[in-house]
Amino acid sequence: MAAATHKNVFERELVEYERLDLEKNELDYALATALHRRYGDKVWVEFPSPKTEGRWQLTSQGWVGHILLPEGLHLLLQPKVALANLFRMLEYAYDLDLHIEQDLVTCGSLVEFYERLARILAERVLSRGKRGYYRAYVPESDQLPYVRGQLDMRRLSTRPWEAHLLCHYEDHIGDVAENQLLTWTLYRIIRSGLCSTRTLPVVRKAYRSVQSFTTLQPFSPKDCVKRLYNRLNDDYEPLHALCRFFLEHSGPAQSSGEHTMLPFLIDMARLFEVFVARWLREHLPSTLRLRVQENVDIVAGGALRFRIDLVIYERGSSTPLYILDTKYKRPEKPAESDVQQVTAYCASRHCQDGVLIYPTAIPTSLDTYVGAFRVRSVVFSLDGDLDAAGRDFLASLFQGPQSSANAEAGHEPIENPAEATTHSPALVTPEAFLASAGTARPLFEAVLALEAELGGKVHWGTKGFSLGVFVNGSRIRICDCFSALSSTGANVVYTTFVTAREKIAGGAELASHLRDELLGARPWVTAGQELKYLAPEVVPENDIDAVALGLRMIAAKVSAAGLVGDRTN
After folding, report:
1. Could you tell me which residues come within 8 angstroms of residue 105 by beta carbon, excluding any fewer than 6 positions away?
2. Is 54 exposed, middle or buried (CB count within 10 Å of its CB: 0-12, 13-18, 19+)?
3. Rounded to whole angstroms, how far apart are CA atoms 458 and 353?
4. Residue 545's pLDDT is what?
5. Cis ω on the peptide bond leading into residue 425 (within 30° of 0)?
6. I want to staple 304 with a disulfide (CB 3.0 to 4.6 A). Which of 62, 207, 298, 556 is the partner?
7. What pLDDT shows up at residue 385?
8. For residue 502, what is the enclosing H or E element?
9. Residue 202, CB-side half-sphere exposure with 13 Å CA sphere
10. In terms of domains, do 340 and 246 share one?
11. Which one, of 366, 352, 360, lies nearest residue 311 by Cα?
């Protein structure tokens, strides 16, 4: 129904990234202009033209929530993500600890979710009020007819005639930031216009309770985090987490006469990034650490810098393992600009593994090399069970190219040639492999010579070979090698620490130690959790010796450590 007046409100639902077409007479020009001017970055407005066949076109640009304009417009921006999963994402991202699956998951809309959260905050504030609000000692200075605290002797000596004495003291008051944050947030909720007559009285009661002794002053979402708590106010932390949610998703006020309305909007791209970061913090292995929004200065002094979404390191190391860039999109394939972006991030931090994270599977996934950098797409699906999706996401993240660390393989070297059938791809012969290696042939000949030296075993695959050593009768793979037969045409040697982590006693610690030791000298570079040697056009003899020495060291260390149990490779 079209309208341009306060009495006849224009109401519509938009689903993110889905276009809504309207006939020219369904939407007033002034109303559309107001929407475009105030929320054009959130809702794209295409005005009637020959290109649109004379129709209006409205498209939500990845924002969900609620927009109210006093001119007479009401838009409900719906997510593509199921509401239950959206609520779980919000709970994770803002550390709300609401046990959403027991209550809030039954909400039928975002507005209802907002209202229930408002009631939860108000009830928790009132509950704290019954036990007494937090009070703190605050330094004060005042001229008093009596002495309180410390007397200002300097002023007294220069102005002995003053009847009132300047005193410095500490006052035990409740008008502190911890309570002022609650006051401001409740004030904003009341002004939102989104609470029904069932919830609004509770919110107003909580507001009056704290406003009676606090100063109303504005706060930003940043004021809600990284606050210091103690045993007297540690229960304020979840309250401030709720405050952050409301303040971060409330836009500028829209006034009309005596009525003021605040839009409720969630940036889904930002929420996806924060959710993935929080999920990783809780589920990364203890040997890894995560940095969020890492700044990299491109120009000295910070005049130009990159801000990288997520970077994963091994604990105790300053060399990144993975650079992650979240992309809240549903494309057919990764955009060229996104690939360029994550490649530039990798180059700026000397990281070998750049990952684009999407919220749903894309028809054409990516796992390739851009120069020396591996660039790939992985999925953290928001379409089903988030916990299961998270486990799949981690498995994909830590998976090496095609398998453990084999970016150029296409097919992993076959560990047991007896398992190959007539339907298996043909295995490369040593002669064909070495011929394809070109000037890197001496490198691979040196690696193959280690088979006899170490008493190991080489297994050939379709595009390369793996070298393993025997530990208590079990073959433990120590490296994979690929030549110009691979998809990138590169000659490369990969470590396979993943095998040691799985099968060697103390494998995770041993792999980390070996990795750090080999990185301390040329010619190895990082490749996710593995290392690699990417052969140049002419391979120096020193590099060949260093690669062989590194592989000998790996073989010696895994042999000395022994197996976790009686397992075979």
Report:
1. 83, 84, 87
2. exposed
3. 27
4. 94
5. no
6. 298
7. 85
8. helix 497-503
9. 18
10. no
11. 352
Nearest to 2, CA basis, from 28, 21, 20: 28
Q: Which residues contact 238 (CB under 8 A, 6 or more apart)?
A: 95, 96, 97, 124
Rounded Cα distance between 4 and 10, Å, is 7
Q: Which residue has the higher pLDDT, 204 or 110?
A: 204
Residues 527/504, Cβ–Cβ less than 8 Å: no
Residue 181: its pLDDT value, please? 95
Counted domains in the chain = 3
Out of 352, 371, 398, a domain closes at: 398
Same domain, 215 and 292: no
Average pLDDT of the residues in 116-137: 90
- 174 and 319 co-located in one domain: no
Let me know if residue 501 belongs to a domain: yes
pLDDT of residue 309: 93
pTM of the complete model: 0.59
Please, what is the end-to-end C-alpha distance for the chain in angstroms? Answer: 68
Domain limits for position 239: 107-265
Among 317-321, 332-336, 347-351, 469-473, the least confident range: 317-321
Q: Which of 177, 193, 214, 186 is nearest to 126 (CA)?
A: 186
Statement to judge: residues 528 and 422 lie in one domain: yes
Query: Tell me: the pLDDT tens digits for 401-420?
Result: 544 334 333 334 434 433 33
Please compute the mean of the pLDDT values over residues 206-235 and round it to a whole number: 90
Q: Which helix (H) or strand (E) is 377 found in, with range? A: strand 373-379
520-552, pLDDT tens digit by residue?
A: 777 998 887 788 898 988 999 999 999 999 999
3-state DSSP assignment of residue 321: strand
Q: Is residue 15 part of a domain?
A: no
166-200 residues labelled b (16+ CB within 10 A) or e (exposed): bbebeeeebbbebbbbbbbbbebbbebbbbeeebb
In three-state form (DSSP H/G/I as H, E/B as E, the rest C), the secondary structure along 411-455 is: CCCCCCHHHCCCCCCCCCCHHHHHHHCHHHHHHHHHHHHHHHHHC
Checking if the pLDDT of 93 tops 70, the result is yes
Q: Which residue type does 314 have?
A: E
d(CA 473, CA 120): 61
DSSP state of 533: E
Q: Which residues lie closer than 8 Å to 452 by C-beta, 6 or more apart?
A: none
- As a whole number of angstroms, the distance between CA 303 and CA 59 comes to 35
- Which amino acid type is present at position 292? V
Say how far apart CA 556 and CA 470 lie, in whole Å.
Answer: 11
Instruction: Using DSSP, state whether 322 is helix, strand or coil.
Output: strand
Instruction: State the Cα–Cα distance between residues 278 and 292, nearest whole angstrom.
Output: 10
pLDDT in tens, 331-371: 899 999 999 999 999 989 888 899 999 999 999 989 888 88
Residues whose CB is less than 8 angstroms from the CB of residue 429 and which lie 6 or more positions away in sequence, other chains included: 460
**CB 14, CB 78: distance < 8 Å:** yes
Q: How far is CA 87 from CA 99, 172, 246, 275, 385, in A?
A: 10, 39, 14, 11, 13
Residue 271 lies in a domain: no
The enclosing domain of 325 has a CATH number of: 3.40.1350
